[in-house]
Amino acid sequence: MKWKVTILVGILLFAGLSASGYMLYQKQQVEHTMVDGDVERLERILNRPLVSVDDRWMSEAVERFDVNTAIVLYEQGGKLSDEQWVYLADLMTFEQFQRTVEAGAPLNVALPSQTLLEGLYSLNDEPEKWQLAHERIDSSFLNEHPNVLVRAIHDGNSEAFIDLINRMDEAAIPFDTVEQLTMEQDQQLMLEALQQKGYGSN
Fold this sequence. Notes:
The protein is an all-alpha fold.
């Protein structure tokens, strides 16, 4: 009986060591693949048994501006902090942004400095990104963060501004502030949109 126990313990120990060696090897493969930028191979490795995403990998991908790697890591269970998501969203193409959102990345993100939405309003960015965000985000989030209107004004994004005032509740819109800013920046389309809503100088 004693020898059977010894054999069983030996088998379990061998299996444990084998599993540990396997996981260490896979982690090394992930790290090499990230350096090479081979996202297809990275995805294949992460789909193998017993391989889970290390938070450190996501940090490294973000630090290297490696959007594609970050997306694959997120899709495979990696975690994106709010700061990382806001940062990456600004770097992404529309296709990358849509893929990340469909993988579960939240849109109702607000940092002390800005919301996720505010980073999408630049006229140098792809408008499809903020349009997708507007379509999917709950209007209550917009009502709670009226500064999105201010950002749209400063960025000169009339289309985003008009869409916002149509989606937000009347009581949530700081009309006096918004009107003053649009006049200061000579945003005629925005002023006209305000007037069409029944607000602002006529």
